[in-house]
Structures are given as structure tokens and as C-alpha cells.
Write a structure and sequence with these properties.
Elements (H helix, E strand, L loop, with lengths): L1 H17 L6 E3 L1 H6 L4 E15 L2 E15 L4 E5 L6 E11 L3 E9 L1 E4 L4 E16 L5 E14 L5 E12 L1
Length: 170
């Protein structure tokens, strides 16, 4: 039993040393370009947008074409779900390797919403996961998860939210 366990541990240790290149590490925008992930990705996104109307939420289902560009900016302004105010979308980190990368971005900021006549705080995440399939000509597939909530500064109640997911290709 012990020799079998020790041989299994040796094989596990050697395989982890050989698979070191498969582990994710922190990347820069220059690494994204060098690995070939940069460019325009197009596809379709689906999800919902909820806006508060008195005491209930109106839910709109969304199915639309979408576009993402890599590498992403360090900071940009995004219009909130109500379409009347903006929040910051800040690059958090990029991690991965030559075959797969993950880009994490975070929504933040405070903005006045004229539709509700209140100051709002935007919070959320946008995650892009890109995978490269090698062949004679590499194929790139992106998975998009985009979630944003707009809360009132006073009281903290949610006024608008969106939850969008999609699949895009380069």
C-alpha cells in the first residue's frame, strides 16, 4: 500500500512540474497582444435588464449583437442600466496563459440618476474568458458575463440591474 501511494505521489509531483506552463499567471496588455488574443470579438448576448417602477421591477429580456475589443482600457465610463447616468468600468486583472485568459473588470462610482432623482452607486463585474483553439488557423472564443447593480446612496435599495451573458468569436 505504501509503495503504491509513494509512486502515485511521485507521478503527481512530476506531472505538476511538467504542467507548469498550463497554470494561469498575471498578464499585461502586451502579453494579450503577444499571445494573439487582441482584436475585435463579435457575437450575441442574452440576459435581462430590471428597472424599478414604483414598488415592482420591470424586466426586459435582452438578445442583441455585441462587440468586445481586446486589450481593454484601464478605465472607461459606462452608461448605467437606466441609460441616464454613468459609472466607471476599471480593469482589475488579466490572468492566464497562451491557451486561455480571463479578464476581470469592476464597475464602481457614484452618479446622479435624473430618472429617480437620486444619487446612485454602481457595483458589479464584467468577466471575459477567452480560449484559443489551435489548428492550421487558431480560433478564438470568448465567454462574457456582465453584471451591474445601481443602488441608492441613501437607503441602499436597488433601482436598476443588468445580467448579461454571451458568446463571442474573433
Amino acid at each position: 500500500m505504501i509503495p503504491r501511494l509513494s509512486s502515485f505521489l511521485v507521478i503527481l509531483f512530476v506531472s505538476t512540474l511538467l504542467a507548469d506552463s498550463a497554470f494561469a499567471r498575471r498578464l499585461s496588455n502586451a502579453d494579450v497582444r503577444r499571445f494573439g488574443f487582441s482584436g475585435v470579438y463579435r457575437g450575441e448576448a442574452q440576459g435581462f435588464i430590471k428597472t424599478k417602477d414604483d414598488d415592482k421591477f420591470d424586466t426586459r429580456l435582452v438578445t442583441q449583437g455585441t462587440r468586445e475589443i481586446l486589450p481593454v482600457r484601464n478605465r472607461s465610463i459606462v452608461t448605467g442600466p437606466s441609460g441616464r447616468n454613468g459609472f466607471f468600468l476599471t480593469l482589475g486583472n488579466i490572468s492566464g496563459n497562451e491557451r486561455r485568459i480571463t479578464v476581470r473588470m469592476y464597475y464602481s462610482g457614484r452618479s446622479y440618476n435624473p430618472a429617480y432623482e437620486e444619487d446612485m452607486i454602481g457595483t458589479g463585474t464584467k468577466i471575459l474568458t477567452i480560449q484559443k483553439f489551435n489548428g492550421s488557423r487558431p480560433q478564438y472564443e470568448m465567454s462574457l458575463i456582465d453584471r451591474l447593480q445601481e443602488r441608492a446612496v441613501n437607503g441602499g435599495s436597488i433601482f436598476t440591474t443588468w445580467d448579461i451573458q454571451g458568446r463571442l468569436f474573433k
